[in-house]
Amino acid sequence: MFFAQEGFTYRNFLMDMIAIFAFVVWFWLLIVIYGDLFRRHDISGWGKALWVLALVLTSYLGIFAYLITQGRGMAERNAEQAQRARDELRHIVGFSVADEITKLDQLKKSGSITDAEYGRLRTKLVS
């Protein structure tokens, strides 16, 4: 039974939406994996070339293999990159936790914030 012979039906529409969703997920996963792969410094150029070849030739199987074997490392590298970006931004902007706590103290003394808000914001800054 071919879907094309039936014309425009709900089943054909649903199958088209599933196919488009699967393609978007596949493309997004490729972008994420290639981004992680090319940012890595612990793998050689040959290793990267082999992963690229595996991802191109095996499509979803290569994506699943990379996620299974490198998933934990991907999460750690993303967390490290986010922390480096935050630290760099704090360094450039001049954000200092001590300065922010001083500002909070001034707001508390002026009555702009309550003791509960002060405690919550100070805890957020310190952590």
Automatic annotation (TrEMBL):
Membrane-spanning parts: 12-34, 49-68
Keywords recorded for this protein, A-Z: Cell membrane, Membrane, Transmembrane, Transmembrane helix
Domain Cardiolipin synthase N-terminal: 24-68
GO cellular component labels: plasma membrane
InterPro entries linked: CLS_N
One Pfam short name: PLDc_N
Compartments (UniProt record): Cell membrane
Membrane-topology annotation of the record: Multi-pass membrane protein
Keyword Transmembrane helix part of the UniProt annotation: yes
Major subcellular location class: membrane
Protein's name according to its UniProt entry: Cardiolipin synthase N-terminal domain-containing protein
